[in-house]
Fold these 2 entries.
Entry 1:
Amino acid sequence: MLERLREHIVRHLRQCVQRRFDLTVEEIAIEVPPHVELGDLAFPIAFQLAQWLRQRTGQKYNPRALAEAIAAELPPMQEIARVEVAGAGYLNVFLDRARLLLGLQQPETAPEPSGEKIIVEHTSINPNKAAHIGHLRNAVLGDALVRLLRWSGARVEVHNYIDNTGVQVADVVVGFKYLEKKDRAEIEAIPGKFDHYCWDLYARVTAWYEENPEALELRRQTLSEIEEGGNPTAELAEYISMRVLNDQLDTVERLGIYYDLLPRESEILHLKFWDRAFELLKAAGLVTYETEGKNRGCWVMRLPSEEETGAREDEGKVLVRSDGTVVYTGKDIAYHLWKLGRLGVDFSYRPFRRYPNGHTTWITTSEATADGAPPEFGRGSAYLSVIGSEQTYLQRFVKEAVRALVPDPRVERSAHIAYEKVALTPRACLELGIELSPEELERQQISMSGRRGLGVKADDLIDKLEEKALGEVRARHPELSEEGARRLAHQIAVGALRYFLLKYTRTTAIAFDFTEALSFEGETGPYVQYAVVRARSIFRKLQEAGLSRHPLGPEQIPEINRFLNEHDDLWALLYLAARLGEFAHQACEHYEPAILAKYAFQLAQRFNTFYHSYHILSEGDPLVREVYLAITEAVCERLARALELLGIEVPEMM
RNA sequence: GCACCCGUAGCUCAGUUGGAUAGAGCGUCGGACUACGAAUCCGAAGGUCGCAGGUUCAAGUCCUGCCGGGUGCACCA
């Protein structure tokens, strides 16, 4: 409802300026004053106006006087209590507090469905090892974006790209065949979390290569057998990668993350996606065959800007190697063209997983689609790919290729959602028992490395969080059953982890610290969850005590206003709750869930202060008590909604 | 060498398309549980927003240069 009011005021301001100064204004900035006493909405329009008028007439104008003039022209509105000019020329608007409170009691109207389908790709961990917390940052970020986009009215299709024919899978195959000398049956007999087993094996293979460089030939040979398909090595790779994938999906399922489709690189290869994309690229003149230089025999793509600036000849990206094989960026171009329906070919599909909540995740296959009717995948209105910022350079080639081949605005709305990695502090490494070189000990951060087996495994961290949360729950609720306590501990652990990974903006490299990640106090998920739990318990107590509610109505507006106008702190809390949509919208627009996470924390903080300084249930004045309850209700609902958009559940008790 | 990201309190980080007196958490010190659950709250100390110029009514925010850190510039992904 706040959005509508804001738009309404902006419209009036635009008319005022048009009428009074004969100026057409496109964008009118809306701000929120730094303090309640200054008002609820601020318009710095007089500053801009003074500038425009000076440019037009050459005369100087006083912003304050201009603001006064506009204020005088603004027609009265029911939702607005008064308008003031403040500071050097701010036009400040004070809302009618009681009307906003009553308005918030109505359920929030959902944004209009836009009918667009946005394809979000995230997680995309190589299927050769367990996920570490860096991978979780990707998954949690992607999942929050999915939730935000759905909230904004879009249809979202969630992809987790599976690079099942790459070097990393080949490395683990090499490890099983040549290092461990295990046959298929022995590998299948390995018990427990297979991805954890591969985590160690992968690190051992990397170390082995370093000592025996000739073994790299085994990797090359294995990789080409996997790419070719239809041989025992490829079948082994298929078994390994699919088993690891299942384990990875178990891990993210613990956080409540699901996918619609798992597009596999093997199908991109075998279903001739690349061949089609290659034809298009050649026809558009985007790739050139190099006849000399270091890239002799390769097909190379150059960025348009490099051509304009006459960059050095050796720049550009090899898409096809001299042996005819395709690099990842090439396959990624094909995949992204398919996402927008530009390729003219399609995958076949089969159901891969059915979850207890009824969700089905599909996977691509080369066989004709057999069981079940898959939904229509691809043909998106835009795509968003959550990929680490270290790949920004390569993603530029993907974007440029798609831009050149898909001549419509969908490409401009598609984007690489870049985020910085999660690194370990030297202290965290020591806690993990990882040995560091002297120069590494000097550094502030140590990058995680799957190759080195250096990192915090996602499952291990979740285990630790659940264990710690369980201890806290048992201490507070000894009466709970084992199952009940575990469920609460799980919700709290997920809340802590998701919030921890989302509170940092995407451009911040997270320095992972166990103490901070395992904290349930201060700026954490559990802090916000606790605020909602407290709020809800008030309503439970209310019912238990058999107390009745006296719903507020329009006839009480003057009385409510008399009370709220004397309590700026209550109003500040209520107003912040009302601004949920504004923050969610911003988070969605900037692909930055941290904006919403910060909001949720701030709202929880203000609620806790309120909870502490006002006693709701024992309030004697029925109207005042009802106002307290209405505020609590409004805050509680917005907090829970914000958490939901971040993928965090609210426990029944804490 | 070139490109991108970062530099804000002791530590970890926010700071919306430039807007009013730069904020939060952690840590430190001192307080608050016989009232809706203390995973909470209140108070205190803590700042040359890396440095130097520039743009303007207004700069932590935009531009230029420098310093410091990270990442990329593969016929790896």
Entry 2:
Amino acid sequence: MKPCHTFQEMRNSKFTPDEITVRCLLCAFTSSNSYCQGKQVHSYVLKKGFISEVSVCNTLLTMYAKCSDLSDVFDIFEEMEGIMDLVSWNATMTACLKHNHNNVFGLLRMMHCFDHEPDHVTLTNVLGACAVVPSLDKGYQVHCFALKTGLETEASVMNGLIDMYTKCGVLINAHKLFDSFSDPDVVSWSSLIVGYAQFGYGKEALELFQTMRNRGVKPNHVTFVGVLSACSRVGLVDEGLHYYSMMETEYGILPTREHCSCVVDLLARSGRLKEAVSFINQMPYDPDIVVWNTVLAACKTHQNAEIGRHAAESVLRLDPSNSSAHVLLCNIYASTGNWEDVARLRKLMRSTGVRKAPGQSWIEVKDGVHVFSVEDRSHPQMDEIYMVLGDLSLEMMEAGYVPYGGFDSFEVVPS
DNA sequence: CTTGGCAACC
């Protein structure tokens, strides 16, 4: 029986729907992602005057956050002045975080002005926002607040802190916090494993995975993404393939698209390019741009023109304006002396106006964000920055560092 | 019967 039919039947009966009925309906439409039906309930809510009920508004906020965009969420939120409670603030923050809107900190300041005290849901959201920037400065402030209020003991806050420190690259803090946690769950373990894997500590990640299993915590699909990428980073290809099959046979977890991408990365990065392509051909998903880009990058490293050409052409079929695939394909044609195709591709790029998007990086210093892009020398302290950069580059080379892609792509001073 | 299925490949 569908919720809308039950609702219709109820309206024809002697029972009158109340705000609880409405909330249940909204929950149902939120989980089935039914925007149109959710909107109809919204109209009903307005007609029957339930809009003055704060819990109904909160459920509306959640429904729009899941089924629509932020403008619908803010429309409701702005109409709620005077009746909003802690849940309203939290639901709106969750919506901002979900839609990558950078207003979580603004909402935190606003809720403070409205005399609402943050709870563990608020802190979990704010920590999530610290992790995406990422901002260690703000993260430390939230950590202090969590200690002061005792919210640190809350599992979601603890996991949020572990994830925040991981994303900020301070694995020591993440691990310390993890050790102080009496009862780490699958999320805590996975955050740490993924963190170690991402920063290149594959061995440590795999050791953590082993300890986790020994302690009887059941890994899930996210844990395995971490495990597979850990294997990929340190070149443990056969171990990675072993974990990939273990995932299904021992834990009954069916591989998602992410797991398949990890296996492609695992094979391609180590130079087993043919196997990577045959894995792509037999995996249960249509290959997307991510997997072909992975293969393409690996072909560049391992100097494989034949598969590289296939990968680049596949990327361009899915995204005809992909500039880096154009450039790499050009290089592949050139490396095999295929000058006709080089000329053809260069002409095509000029006529379609495909240009390489400039790379950007940024760093947060105190309360300002400093942005840098290629060949941009507009920063007021540029001379000092390049002096330090030059020293660092020398030190790195003396230590034996060879940049990815070789020295020809390594520029100390822009031309 | 109102906020959280938190953590994820390049």
